[in-house]
Amino acid sequence: MKVPKYYRVKREILALIADLPTGAAVPTEREFAEQFDTSRTTVRQAIAELVIEGRLERTQGRGTFVSQPKLMQVRQATSFSQDLAAEGWSPGSRILAVTVEQATDAMVGPLRVEPGQPVQRVERLRTRGDEVIAHEVAHLPGVFPGLAEHLAATGSLYRTLAEVYGRVVDAVEDSVETTLADPVAADLLGVDTGLPLLLVHRTAWDAQGQPVEWTRSLFRGDRFRFVARHRLDDVKHPAAAESH
User: Fold this and answer.
1) Rg (CA), the chain
2) pLDDT digits over 28-84, tens only?
């Protein structure tokens, strides 16, 4: 099989940056082109893929640098804050808006509400330090008085719902797909338009099976990878376990 030239250049660049620390500057496109005896177009394509994969990052007017390792999100009945804290990161959020809206047809199923009923909308940017890594819009069935103030104090929606309103998340379901950053999402996340993003829809329920949350989150594809962990009951159902 013939390997595209840009892919060979990409592998060469990966080898060069393997031992470089996060934030280290890499050569320019022109310098790489001269080093690998190829065109800048070929180098540009190789670097573009490495940016999408989160190995390099570009800063307008400054250059290209070795990126930080991707954050690992373990998808289970935990919050964004819990997931990042478990990985040793310092999670944060920036509240953009907390409002009351009328339920749309799309909310009827996941929130079990009637169209037009009031629902609480919470829009936030999720951060690690000063870096924005996700945009999140949560919808909650009903109205939660004082939610903005309580959320600002705790920084965690799940903690606020549990401690202030008695709504404890017991189970969640996540649907993960890929999408591209449109101009609005790109501006919110501080990335280039067209950057691959991870689109996650989450529905959460309490122990009685009542909906607590329906959320749409956009995660930077160059910053996150998701890992799903499952336990196979190979003691009670060995045949089923062996079939997977």
Assistant:
1) 22
2) 999 999 999 999 999 998 998 888 777 888 887 889 999 877 655 544 545 555 555
**Distance (Å) of CA 196 to CA 75, 135, 208:** 20, 14, 37
Alpha helices in 18-142 (DSSP H): 29-36, 40-52, 80-86, 105-111
Sign for the CA dihedral angle at 171, 149, 217, 111 comes to positive
Q: What number of other Cβ atoms are within 10 A of residue 174's Cβ?
A: 16
Distance, CA of 230 to CA of 244 (rounded, Å): 12
Q: Name the nearest CA neighbour of 103 among 15, 223, 211, 238.
A: 211
Entry pTM: 0.65
Among the listed residues 71, 87, 78, 13, the one whose alpha carbon sits nearest the alpha carbon of residue 45: 13
Burial 202-218 (b: 16+ CB within 10 A, else e): bbbbbeeeebbbbbbbb
Contact 98, 151 (CB under 8 A): yes
Closest CA to 226 of 175, 158, 190: 175
Note the residue count of the chain. 244
CB 164 within 8 A of CB 150: yes
